[in-house]
Design a protein that fits this description.
Number of domains of chain B: 1
Number of strands of chain A: 10
CATH architecture of chain B: Up-down Bundle
Number of helices of chain B: 16
Helix content of chain A: 25-40%
Strand content of chain B: under 5%
Largest interface: A-B, 94 and 98 residues
Largest sheet of chain B: none
Structural class of chain A: alpha+beta
CATH class of the largest domain in chain A: Mainly Beta
Strand order of the largest sheet of chain A: 3-2-1-5-8
Radius of gyration of chain B: 24 Å
Number of domains of chain A: 2
Oligomer: heterodimer
CATH class of chain B: Mainly Alpha
CATH topology of the largest domain in chain A: Immunoglobulin-like
CATH topology of chain B: Cytochrome C Oxidase, Chain A
Helix content of chain B: 55-70%
Structural class of chain B: mainly alpha
Order of helices and strands of chain A: HHEEEEEEEEEEHH
Chain lengths: 249, 563
């Protein structure tokens, strides 16, 4: 259902969507039942001349049942929803499948920057590729990310992946995702982070293994291994930075 | 000392500005709250215009810059919660109703009551003054997460941020004073014969809300002092580079912030209970069960706070515990709503304006309630957290509370407050003109949220996924509906002020109600009751079999009058 509104492009997007449908069915039933009951009662017991009101305290057992039985069913429904919620949460946030690649995501006022391993596949080596605003990943590959913030609280959200995690200064927060669909997806910051908050956009570009390998080659310096610091990766300027500069003024 | 001296009419200045009369203080809170609501509504108009018609000139405001947009949403949230819902629901209705409904002449501490309003007024002025300082008002969201809120270098509103914090702290002082006063008054000043279970539900709920507020405000006040020190003295309570922790603030804030939802919900539920009983001519279905569910809600509200922080970087295992408590709190709240619906059964329902509002409260609040389940379930919250789905959910709870229930209460007690009836026709026009657009504002926002619109974004042009045309149509629809809803508020203002002079004289008990406030004159004089009432029974004895009248006021002795 959610996919009608936004592409599901990660391995766990569908489990969130299914949980959403489960909850929608359960609470939808109760909402319609309760609203229907209310409007039916309003209609049935609208004021009419000569029909006196009934004296009911709510202690009568045969009437009390109308509250207590739904009450127990609602507890059951809550347990069903909780089981689903905790299962999905556990799978996405509490355990991480083994990583194929680990990347670093850094939030700062007001841009996302990324550090990806170069051809050697290892992070924090000289051939790392650093980018601003764009993260290039390979489809069907499990990524771990290390999320950092340089200043205030940000939130790393990729709606198409159904991924959201706040970035806190002073901590490294780990998470994972596995893109399942080639394409370009938005990254939004979802925690108020100052006047440039709305302009803190980024993109995740999910590529086929061939395209990603080509991109890696283009952007990594073959001689980088001998250099102490990697400077090769050009930071693509997003149109955001110009607007931010304007906003700052 | 004779009562004539005690209850002599004071001079104009003392009457309107330094009154210790609970009814005058209630009016001060009410009119201050209404003025703040106009300001908060104006801000909503400005930022919705920016979202509906991005980067266009907003009539009456101008171009909305990103910084101003942030300030507008921050101030809209802060004002509507702290300077509209709190003063109107708790302070205005609490002050007006408590002495009248428990049958005493005034609050237990009238001077503390006056001080409470004066501090509240000061807090509102401090907040509004932030529009005049260099850098403008605070724009770091009403939750004010540090380090953004702690440092002028990050938020670029160093003075505005401090003024916001001071205003919130002052507002808390005002409500702590008020809360103590309410509780003591109900404990000690009830009319003879009024036992605990003879107290009307609205009074119970205001008292429980005050207790929940007093118990939850402490941690946030401590947090506010720390944040103030961080801002002004460069301490590092929330600064990780100096051993502080930004998450600490989030815990302190939400430890207060979630109970706060119930602090405003309970008085609203209470108002609705009174109105349903009167207009369905029915005893509340399971009076004691309503109270038990209220206590359960009050207690559970203290153990759900971290559901605001599932993805904030807390230990992920904690999310499971808070998912459980959050879904648990749905049980008593649902039961309370069911009891209200059950009250309609067997009644004789009169659809006057107050009843329309009360029924609309239940119908709309249920939508807010069930959509909360999506957010309280940790799994779906990963996606929906901080999207417009959350905004729509929140407003489906908060608009019923702070707008619909307030209109229910105002239209119901207006005759008692001012001695005249409101115009029914205008009342119904205003009702439909508010409730229909309200749904048209927020139903589209559920969809934009599901489609990935994150909150507090002044312009979605940066995001390809959010730039799809149908999403912009939905945003524009929402904005237009807001304009319609705001326009219909003029009908209310006209009705309110013109009925002060032209309304039909109300008489003491126009709704044929049982509770004690209707035994006083309309409006009640200083000192409230010509003869102090004695209570013989509970507040909801409607439709007693074998009586000519379908109601029996609390103060009528058994065997007297009407049998």
């Amino acid at each position: 259902m959610l996919e009608r509104y936004l592409t599901a492009a990660s391995s766990y997007a569908h489990s969130i969507d299914h949980l959403f449908i489960l909850i929608a069915l359960v609470v939808g039933f109760w909402l319609i039942a309760a609203e229907g009951m209310m409007f039916a009662l309003i209609f049935k017991f609208r004021a009419k001349d000569g029909r006196p009101t009934q004296y009911i305290t709510g202690e009568e057992p045969h009437l009390k049942r109308w509250i207590s039985i739904p009450h127990y069913i609602i507890i059951l429904c809550d347990i069903v929803i909780l089981a689903g919620a905790i299962t999905v949460w556990y799978r996405i946030k509490q355990v991480m499948p083994p990583a194929d690649v680990t990347v670093r995501v850094i939030g700062q006022q007001w841009a996302w920057s990324f550090q990806e391993p170069g051809p050697d596949g290892l992070l924090d080596t000289a051939d790392d590729i650093r980018t601003v605003g764009e993260l290039h990943v390979t489809v069907n590959t499990t990524y771990h990310f290390e999320l950092l913030s340089r200043d205030v609280v940000h939130s790393f959200a990729v709606p198409a992946f159904r991924l959201k995690q706040d970035a806190l200064p002073g901590r490294t927060i780990s998470g994972w995702f596995k893109p399942t669909r080639v394409g370009t997806y938005d990254i939004q910051c979802t925690q108020m982070c100052g006047i440039g908050h709305a302009l803190m956009a980024g993109r995740i570009i999910v590529e086929t293994p061939q395209d990603h390998a080509a991109w890696l080659l283009r952007n990594s310096n073959p001689a980088a291994a001998e250099k102490p610091v990697q400077q090769a990766a050009a930071a693509p300027t997003t149109d955001a930075s110009a607007t931010i500069a304007e906003a700052r003024r | 000392m004779s009562t004539e001296v005690l209850h002599a009419e004071p001079g104009i200045f003392r009457k309107y500005f330094f009154s210790t009369d609970h009814k005058m203080i209630a009016m001060q809170y009410l009119f201050t709250g209404m003025a703040m609501a106009l300001i908060g509504g104006f801000f909503a108009y400005v930022f919705r215009m920016q979202l509906g018609f991005p980067n266009h000139y907003v009539p009456g405001y101008g171009i909305v810059t990103p910084g101003r947009y942030n300030a507008l949403v921050t101030m809209h949230g802060s004002i509507m919660i702290f300077w509209v819902a709190m003063p109107v629901l708790i302070a205005a209705f609490g002050n007006f109703l408590i002495p009248l409904m428990v049958g005493c002449d005034d609050m237990a501490f009238p001077r503390i009551n006056r001080l409470s309003y004066q501090i509240f007024l000061l807090s509102a002025l401090v907040l509004l003054s932030s529009f005049l300082v260099k850098g403008g008002p605070f724009g770091g969201a009403w939750t004010a997460y540090p380090p953004l809120s702690a440092s002028g270098a990050y938020n670029l509103t160093p003075i505005g941020a401090t003024l916001w914090l001071l205003a919130v702290a002052l507002e808390f002082v005002a409500f702590l004073l008020g809360g103590i006063n309410f509780t003591v008054t109900v404990m000690n000043s009830r009319a003879p014969g009024m036992k605990m279970y003879d107290i009307p539900i609205v009074i119970w709920m205001i008292i429980l809300a005050s207790i929940v507020f007093m118990a939850s405000a402490g941690p946030l006040i401590a947090g506010a002092v720390m944040l103030l020190f961080d801002q002004t003295m460069s301490t590092g309570f929330f600064d990780p580079t100096r051993g502080g922790d930004p998450l600490l603030w989030q815990h302190l804030f939400w430890f207060f912030g979630h109970p706060e939802v119930y602090v405003v919900l309970l008085p609203a539920m209470g108002i609705v209970a009174e109105i349903i009983a009167v207009f369905a001519r029915k005893k509340i279905f399971g009076y004691k069960t309503v109270l038990y569910t209220t206590w359960a809600v009050g207690f559970l509200s203290f153990v759900v706070w971290a559901h605001h922080q599932f993805v904030a970087g807390i230990d992920p295992r904690m999310a499971n515990i808070f998912s459980v408590t959050t879904l648990l709190i749905s049980v008593p709240v649902t039961e309370m709503v069911f009891l209200y619906i059950a009250t309609l059964y067997g009644g004789s329902i009169h659809l006057d304006t107050p009843m329309l509002w009360a029924l609309a409260f239940i119908a709309e609040f249920m939508i807010g309630g069930v959509t909360g389940i999506f957010l309280g379930s940790s799994g779906t919250d990963i996606y929906l957290h901080d999207t417009y789905f959350l905004i729509a959910h929140f407003h489906y709870t908060f608009v019923p509370i702070a707008i619909i229930a307030v209109f229910a209460g105002l239209t119901f007690w207006y005759p008692k407050m001012f001695g005249r009836m409101l115009n029914e026709t205008l009342g119904k026009i205003h009702f439909w003109g508010t409730v229909i657009p309200f749904n048209v504002i927020f139903i589209p926002l559920f969809i934009t949220g599901i489609a990935g619109d994150q909150r507090r974004i002044y312009n979605y042009a940066q995001f390809a996924e959010q730039s799809r045309p149908y999403l912009q149509h939905l945003r524009t629809t929402s904005t237009i509906a807001l304009l319609v809803m705001l326009a219909f508020q003029l009908v209310f203002l006209f009705n309110f002020f013109s009925s002060l002079r032209n309304g039909k004289a109300a008489g003491a008990n126009p709704w044929r109600s049982n509770t004690l406030e209707w035994t006083a004159a309309s409006p009640p004089p200083h000192g409230n009751f010509a003869e102090m009432p004695t209570v013989y029974r509970g507040p909801y004895e409607y439709g007693l079999p074998g009586r000519a009248d379908d109601f029996l006021p609390q103060n009528v002795p058994d065997g007297a009058a009407g049998d």
